[in-house]
Write a structure and sequence with these properties.
There is one protein chain. By secondary structure, this protein is mainly α. It contains five helices and two strands; from the N terminus they run H-H-H-E-E-H-H. It has one domain (3-138). The protein has helices at residues 3-28, 35-57, 64-81, 92-109, 113-138; strands at residues 83-84, 89-90. Strands 1-2 form a two-stranded antiparallel sheet.
Length: 146
């Protein structure tokens, strides 16, 4: 196996690890989308990105449509995670988390490792820290005002 294959394997594992960190935080809050979901999103985004870049390197395709498709596809998955009741909306944070996790997987696929790690750290701060702050300061509920 050559160095490029080891690099790709490292990228796939790193994407899973970063997605797992986010998913683990969601599991601790008993959210529906957790460890497996976030890991798979990061892995899939990384894999599609790596494949598109390898195909571009071989002068087979332009990678930009595949990269755009990842963002659009995550929009559809995110839309499916949002539930609207008569007076509530649930799943917006999950949808946003899945979307940014795909971006993290894409960053790993492009070998932007520091960017991916920093983004993961920021997501964890947002999910853990800002969620608590929001609850305490604003007593926020998922309510739609009519």
């Amino acid at each position: 196996m050559d160095l490029e294959n080891y690099q790709i394997i490292f990228q796939l594992f790193l994407a899973v690890i970063l997605g797992s960190l986010i998913g683990l935080e969601r599991e601790t809050k008993r959210k529906e989308a957790g460890l497996q979901t976030y890991s798979l999103v990061a892995l899939g985004a990384c894999l599609f990105t790596v494949i598109s870049l390898l195909l571009a390197k071989a002068n087979i395709i332009d990678p930009s449509p595949i990269i755009i498709a990842i963002a659009v596809g995550m929009g559809f998955i995110g839309a499916g995670a949002i539930f609207r009741g008569e007076n509530t909306i649930k799943g917006l944070t999950t949808a946003a988390g899945l979307w940014v996790t795909a971006a993290i997987g894409m960053a790993v696929g492009c070998q932007f490792y520091l960017l991916a790690v920093c983004a993961t750290f920021l997501v964890l701060i947002i999910f853990a820290g800002l969620g608590l702050l929001e609850e305490r300061l604003f007593k926020k509920e998922n309510v739609i005002k009519k």
